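Students often ask why we bother encoding 3D structure as a string. The short answer is that it lets us treat folding as translation between two languages. Here is a chain of 432 residues written in the first language.
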Amino acid sequence: MNGQVTHARAADSEAPPDVSEAVEHLFRHEWAKLVATLTRIFGIEHLKLAEDVVQEALVRALQTWPFYGVPEKPASWILRTARNLALDVVRREKNFRDKEPQIAQWMERDEDGEGSPDGEIADDTLRMILVCCHPRIPADAQAALALRTLCGFGAAEIARAFLTTEAATAKRLTRAKQKIREAKISFEIPSGAELARRLDGVLQCLYLLFNEGYKASGGERLVRAEVCGEAIRLAGLLAEYPAGNRPQTHALLALMLLNAARLPARVDGIGNLLRLQEQDRSLWDRGMMARGMFHLARSAEGGEAGVFHLQAGIAACHCAAVDYQSTDWAQILALYDRLMQLDGSPVVALNRAVVIANLQGPAAGLEAIGAMANLKALDDYHLLHAVRGELEMRLGHREAAAANFRRSLELAGTKSEEAFLAKRLLECGERV
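And here it is in the second language, the structure alphabet:
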């Protein structure tokens, strides 16, 4: 089961709008917490069961709430229903008696609303990320598993986020869950050096989680602010924990806060994409920008700058510019040059080419794209063709621009991007 199934069944139901909206809200905002809480109670070996029963509880809400009304505490209703469904399954297992006292203790504690003991990271969702980043789980599967368990994403959504195939993603998820069972990974918080070894993986998962909210890989909305907010919340929790209070954690927090500050201006009133030069900067969240700058300063207390430091520096340059024309593109290019030495990914190279175009003109930008060593890896990446279209358009090459915009439109994953690209096609004199 996955998030797409939930939405499909929600849409097909005859539930009143207020019920459908309540269930949609729970899926978007509570899925990760519900799955993580049930995983803590029943064990990480029951991760799939936790996902399935939360899914089933949401479906039952759609079926029963139209008759009985939305409960006063809807998230508690979903948790209680899902927990009882899981308990029915676990009771049929041979080793249930061995686990029964511990399960009863956890369930009683959750009923009382108690948190985790002092000195631990008191958040089940963050515990889940630490499980996803266990060294026994292959690196390429860690982030995919985190997106699955934290957001309820299906294999197709994750595949778009990673520029890979749905089949490859499904294999990664299966392999990761198999490793969890084989290694008998616990749901406990590791300490000291063990936690430090997982930190890079955790930060990468939070980074990918934020990016999926900042620019969704599919669906109706380009921006999912609640996903960005959850990534920022979890990174803040990590920074408060001694082993997680590291320069790279603060660098990531700075990056996310500085980018999230611009979210209110990224789309217009009906959800259409606005480019950076079109955004109303008075809508940028100054308080969030100030928090981002604070964590950027904290990140400088360590040694050499890492990937998140450089990306946060780029975000800070954008936030510091009073308008698009006054952006310090030379400083941004210098930061991208350093970033390429640490992360020579094709997406970073493409972003660098955009900066070159802003400094030296569209022809130089196209030349930089053509010189990319791993350009073929972006054949199915819609933003490559969108950037090429923009640069060709600036050069007055309408036919070449239209061809690129059309290819980008074929690959785009969100309604907002499709609308933007269709508009650009019309501006080239082409029919959509």
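Translate back mentally: DSSP finds 20 helices and no strands in the chain. Keep this in mind for the problem set.
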